[in-house]
Amino acid sequence: MTDAMRRGGAEPVTVRFDRVSRLFSAVAGVAGIDFKVAPRECVALMGASGCGKTTLLRIAAGLEAPTGGRMSFERDGKEVPRTEVEIGVCFQEPRLLPWRNALRNVALPLEIRGVPKRDARLRAYDALDLVGLLGSAKTMPAKLSGGMRMRVGLARALVAQPKVLLLDEPCSALDIVTRVEIEDHITHVREAMHMTIVLVTHAIEEAAFLADRVAILAGSPAGVIETLEITHGSRASAVRDSQEFSVTLSRLMQSLHAAARRGL
Amino acid sequence: MRGLAGKIVPPIVVLALIVVAWGAAVKVFALPPFLVPSPLAVASVVVERADMLFSGCLATAITATLGLAIAAVVGIVAGIVISSSRLLLSGVYPIASFLQTVPLVAVAPLLVIWLGYGAPPATAAAALVALFPVLANTIDGLRGVDPHFHEVFTLYHANRFQRWWKLEIPGAVPGIVTGLRIATGLSVIGSIVGEFVSGYAGESAPIGMIVMSAMRESRTDIVFAAIALSSLVGLALFGIVSVGGALLLRAWHPSIR
Fold it and tell me: How many A/B residue pairs have CB atoms within 8 Å?
């Protein structure tokens, strides 16, 4: 935490898309994306495959540049450069370096930042503890199950105490039990770390459980056609069994159907 | 250990069958010894001329190893340098690929002109043939790192050195090991081709020289023995490099399991 504080990173961050476009052709890509993720808010991006959800996430991560508009970060109402915002990303595949064990994979972002080795290791242990993988610290990625690899990826995304967490279908390849576990982990750490989260997902349960709002993308090029507030109001694991949760799911489902009828 | 035995036993059985078939063919067709000697004759010449053959193998093994070492150092360093710049890569790599097609047998006399007789031109010939696979595999390994991993480094604002040291170099190790394994077999061939044309300066003739003089004396049994033993030299070097590579990669690479 001290490292993040020294960088003035203790305050939560706003993620702002300002008429962002990323066009691959006249009809392919995203256009006119205009929305704001408030500090400590979690917004889920949903929509048909190929509508550009991941593209938006990659723009937020700085891995792609928009062809129009601007994507920016704000802290206390003032814009801050990307290099000053701690960003954690969970890609669709965990992208663990196969020659590093779980611990050293998690420590990588800190190593790159120049955190001393001992310090980096200790913090990597903490991050692994957070996702319940302390026992597998010395295991190579190839020897971990898919769910465990995903959790190591999450630990790596969290190790530098990010203020912005970008999740690209973090649980799509996982069985339901592991998925629920990882969702609970994310909820748990998000409270503690005051993170602003952008989540790309196809799973309505995941969006309903993690997000405060769901933005639905459709059209060609795709834009945000609807934003739903999630109102069941609890992030306890048990909320999944509640009546309110079921209502949220069916609202989401209806909106996605409506979006699908409009087509890409 | 069942795995190891399972790997070693079948080829030995096949080899034994081939030797038996060879011996039978020599007997049945009554082949003259100067054309094809019997396995037994080859075995006995190995024992009779053990000193000469052993020191020949040693001399060839030394030139091959030295050539391989030179090729490894030059190939890896040059690979790193070349792949560090797009300009160098586009300028130098095609020429290196072209040089690879120059036949070594034709170059060997030139090496003798430049380096004199004996071991130096043979070592140079070994290094020359072994160089390209190391160079090419180093470059491919460094540049072939999964772009997904590069994105992880981009995300954390890694500098060029970190990207190189923590991503490209470890990612290139499997490729470099493959290059070295290919280069090992070639280095023995290169060494022997070098010896064919370079004669020898010291007291112990290398395998290439033993083959040449045995040929002139129609001692086909010695030629056979020399061929067999030189393959053993190649096999031994290959084994050492493979084991070294496996030790380096055993923790993570799917080829080792």
Answer: 48
Among the four given CATH numbers 3.40.50.300, 3.40.50.960, 1.10.1740.10, 3.55.30.10, the one describing domain A2-86+166-262: 3.40.50.300
pLDDT digits (tens, 9 = 90+) for A204-216: 999 999 999 999 9
> Which pair of tokens denotes residue A190?
């998000």
Q: Does A113 touch chain B (CB under 8 A)?
A: yes
Amino acid identity for residue A152 in this structure:
V
Q: Structure tokens of B50?
A: 């053990």
The verdict on residue B104 lying in a domain is: yes
Residue A30 corresponds to which amino acid? Answer: V
Q: What is the ipTM of this complex?
A: 0.89
pLDDT tens, A23-48?
Answer: 888 778 888 899 899 999 999 999 88
Distance between CA A242 and CA B29 in Å, rounded?
A: 90
Cβ atoms of A80 and A39 within 8 Å: the answer is: no
Q: What is the torsional sign of CA B153, B157, B161, B166? A: negative
Contact call for B252 and A142, based on CB within 8 A: yes
A83 contacts in chain B (CB < 8 Å): 157
